[in-house]
Design goal:
Largest sheet: 2 strands, antiparallel
Number of strands: 2
Order of helices and strands: EEHH
Distance between the termini: 49 Å
Structural class: mainly alpha
């Protein structure tokens, strides 16, 4: 039951209707900082700014026509030099097949050594990170349980 100044045991629908009436009456009276004020107030308006200056286009210059027309000579390019014919290098400068195979085997051995060193470094990194990973997994499981 609603009486002047007191509210006694309101049912749901009465509460909703009072809430909607309250929002209609008090809503416009709230100021911007969401605190109630008893009188409607106006906010101070900012002084009007002067309109922003726009950039004007520059006038195009009038082109002066030359009195005399002077012919300009373009320089001519010299004739292209003939390209030297590419020939096969002499056989004395080429390496033999045996030296080529030996060089390939040396390069392959260096490659294999580098790969083995890479595997060792990665395994050291994994063994270093493993305990920290296990600890992290335990911590995350504790969060989710």
């Amino acid at each position: 039951m609603v009486t002047m100044g007191t509210v006694d045991k309101l049912d749901f629908f009465t509460t909703i209707s009072l809430h909607s009436i309250f929002c209609q009456v008090v809503g416009p009276i709230m100021n911007e900082s969401t605190e109630f004020s008893f009188m409607p107030t106006t906010t101070a308006t900012a002084p009007a700014k002067a309109p922003r200056k726009r950039r004007t286009r520059k006038a195009t210059a009038v082109k002066a026509t030359p009195a005399k027309v002077v012919a300009v000579k373009t320089p001519t390019k010299p004739a292209a030099k003939p390209v030297a014919k590419v020939s096969r290098p002499s056989e004395s400068r080429l390496i033999s097949f045996d030296r080529y195979v030996k060089d390939f085997n040396q390069r392959w051995a260096i490659h294999q050594w580098e790969v083995n060193e890479l595997v060792k470094d990665i395994s050291k990194g994994v063994s270093f990170v493993t305990p920290y990973h296990a600890e992290l997994v335990k911590t995350v499981k504790q969060w989710t349980v």
